[in-house]
Structure formats: structure tokens, C-alpha cells
Specification:
Layout: E1 7-12, E2 15-19, E3 24-25, H1 31-42, H2 46-58, E4 65-70, H3 74-85, E5 89-94, H4 102-110, E6 115-117, H5 124-135, E7 141-144, H6 148-155, E8 166-169, H7 172-183, E9 191-193, H8 198-221, E10 229-233, H9 237-248, E11 252-256, H10 260-268, E12 272-273, H11 276-279
Parallel strand pairs: 4-5, 4-7, 5-6, 7-8, 8-9, 10-11, 11-12
Antiparallel strand pairs: 1-2, 2-3
Length: about 280
Amino acid sequence: MGRAPSRSGRRAGGRQHVSQAVCDIADRRLAEYGEQRIAWAAREMPVTAQIHERFLAERPFDGLRIAGCLHITSETANLALALQAGGAEVTLCASNPLSTQDDVAAALVERAGITVFAIKGESNETYYEHIHRAIDTRPQVTIDDGADLVSTLHSDRRDALDGVVGGCEETTTGVIRLRAMAADGALAYPIMAVNDAATKHFFDNRYGTGQSALDGIIRATNILLAGKTVVVAGYGWCGRGVASRADGLGAHVVVTEVDPLRALEAVMDGFRVMPMADAAAEG
């Protein structure tokens, strides 16, 4: 994959990055470590591995241009590699600059030849510049995490809408934005609400958020949860996951919930349920 020579670029997040004709990443020298990180994640993603092999044989996306505005991490890297195995020309930009793994971005560019516009800690200006550069590839399919790519296509880049045949969105926030656009008759192409899939609620919300929310609190505070009172606001999929994990770590869990059926479920799961005004005094 031909590239223009790299040149020194502006600083983003306090670090020098390279800017090339086909990518904008922090440091391509991080590719080796990024490749190892992607391989490590792949070991925990057997379904994606099976899809990768199937796509490699069937090539369902041969010649299709796909642009994704996603968290640039080792997990989504495996998704991008599966799409590429299916014949797609994949371009990625970051949906959240704070989650970008620069070594993964480097590995995707240097080892896989995937076009990436993502730098950890990039400014708001650079964030939208990267979305525009992804749109410059004239995608036929979009994959979004928050609907910023789709929103930009429908506002500032309507010149690129004609070739888009469909897309998907994986977040609640993004689906709400897109449904509002659809209700107004403004959505120019069909989008699949991946967020509404049952597996998404189970694995992402209940188990993923349930674990990562507590992991973030523990990392930030170094607090011991055993014996503490943890108040969980709401007993939806995320609330169920957080309550279950906190309980497993030895915390006393209190749930607040306005829906009577969910409140009853929380009680049957062994948690105390009370109004937020009362729970706030305990948690």
C-alpha cells in the first residue's frame, strides 16, 4: 500500500505524531506492540475469529468501502481485520480520542494496510478533521459509535451521501439521535440499530459495563469495596451488571428504581431497594 513520506505534524495530547497521505496516527513505530495486543485480544474473541475465517472464504464485501467511527482498540481492530478479510476497504477514525490505543492504530496501518485517522488525546478540531478525512474515502457503508460520522455526513458532507447504501450504530445515544433524524425524514439511508440486539445488552451492558464501571472506580480510587455500601441508580441492563459485580466484591448494594417491576426484580435478586433520597444518605 503506497504512502507519501511521513512528515512531522502538530502536537495532540502532548505527543508528536506523523501525518501521512493515507493515515494520521501518533507513532508508526508502535506497530509491533500493537500487533501483539491485537493478537492477545483475538484469543478472547472466538466468534469474531470464526467470522473472520468465513469472510476470508466468502469475501462478502469485495470492493466495498467501509468507514467506521469507533473506539480504536485491540477489540475493534479485530472487527476491522474481519471486515478486511471479507474484501472490504476499511477506513477508521476514533469515536472517542481518550480510548484510542496508539499502538493498535499503528499496527492496523503498518501491518494490515488499513487507513486510520486516530490519535490518543486529539483535540476536538482534529477529531472532526479525522471524521472528514474518513468521509473523503467515499464510504458505501458506515459503522458508527455515537452517530458522529452519520451526523457529519448529513450536515457538512452531504456531497458524500449518494454512494452510501447502509450502516449500523451500536450505542443508545447514537440510536436516539438517528431515530430523531428518521422521524424528521432526514435520515438518508437505512441504519441497523445494533444497540438493540439482545447479545449487545447481555455482553456489552450487563457484563461489560458491569465489570468496567467498577474497574474504573477501583483504579481511580484504590478503594476496597468489601463492606462498603454501593448505590446503583436504576436496574436496567447496566444496573444489573454493576449491582451483581459489586455484590460479588462484598459490597452492600442498594438499588434505586422508578419502574416497579424492575424494583421487584432487584428485591428478588437480594438487593435492598429504596428511593434515591434515602439511598443517597447511605451510599
